[in-house]
Amino acid sequence: MRTYARSLAASGMATLVMGGVAMTWAPPASAHDQVSPSSAVAGSHTRVTVAAENEATQPTVGVEVRLPPGFTLGAPESLPGWTSSINRRADGTPTSVRWTAGAVAAGSVVELVLTGTVPRSAGSLVWVVSQLHAGGTWQAAPVDEAPRMTVRAVPLSGAGVVRPAAPAAAVRLASEPAATAVPLVDGVARSRAALALVLAVGAALGVLGLAVLLLGAPRLRARLRPADDAARDKAAVDRVLEAAVRQRKPRQVVRSGRR
């Protein structure tokens, strides 16, 4: 019995030792990249922060973030000491953003910020990060280990989502009287009243002008009458003088040829 117990204990110790050795020689994990925020509202303009950790022994001198399908890039934010560039397809569509000319020491984390618009439909955005280490080549993290962002169709209550304020025109105090719409009929009635007023004023001016003309005609005839009388008197005098001249003219006597 003692021999069996000793044998079991020895077997357990051997198992523990082998497990420790196996844990000691486990392969290193991939880079622990993270993305913030972890979720966004569909169709919203979002500021995305990608944190890339350097788990290698050599410094990281370049980081590239692959843009998920459906994400529309606005612009990458500048990072002191780094140079950013945008890789595009032949049609000009951005595919990734690359930061180079910097350095991230082993065990350190660099945060890269870019802005853009997430898709209008709900889903998940996968942010694949590649790193370039000093003296090496570009290495991309496995897609299944890449950080993900959830795109929500409806904002969650209390999730810190900033909702746009209601338009000022839609806000009205209870004590504020509602605006009364002016009907179109009132405008037509006003136009007709204005036209009637103009016609009335024109008619009044016409009557006034006619009255002035009637009142002024006798005076005008009175002023012109002396001249007419003088003309008629002169004509009568001329006729009298002509008759007198005719009476004084000697008559011509025609006699026969007898002497």
CATH topology of the largest domain: Immunoglobulin-like
Judging by the overall fold, what is the CATH architecture of the largest domain?
Sandwich
* Proportion in β-strands: 25-35%
CATH superfamily membership of the largest domain, which one?
A: Uncharacterised protein YcnI-like PF07987, DUF1775
Task: Describe the protein in words.
The chain is α+β, with helices and mostly antiparallel strands and 259 residues long. It folds into two domains: 34-153, Immunoglobulin-like (Sandwich); 186-250. The chain is 34% helix and 27% strand. A hairpin with a 5-residue loop joins strand 6 and strand 7. The longest helix is centred in the C-terminal third of the chain and has 65 residues, at 184-248. The chain is rod-shaped.
Helices and strands in order:
Elements: H1 2-24, E1 34-36, E2 39-41, E3 45-53, E4 60-66, E5 72-76, E6 83-88, E7 94-104, E8 109-117, E9 123-126, E10 129-133, E11 138-140, E12 148-152, H2 184-248
Parallel strand pairs: 2-12
Antiparallel strand pairs: 1-3, 3-8, 4-7, 4-10, 5-8, 6-7, 9-12, 10-11
Condensed summary:
It is built from 2 helices and 12 strands. The chain is of the alpha+beta class.
Structural key phrases:
single chain; 259 residues; alpha+beta; Immunoglobulin-like; 2 domains; 4-stranded antiparallel β-sheet; 34% helix
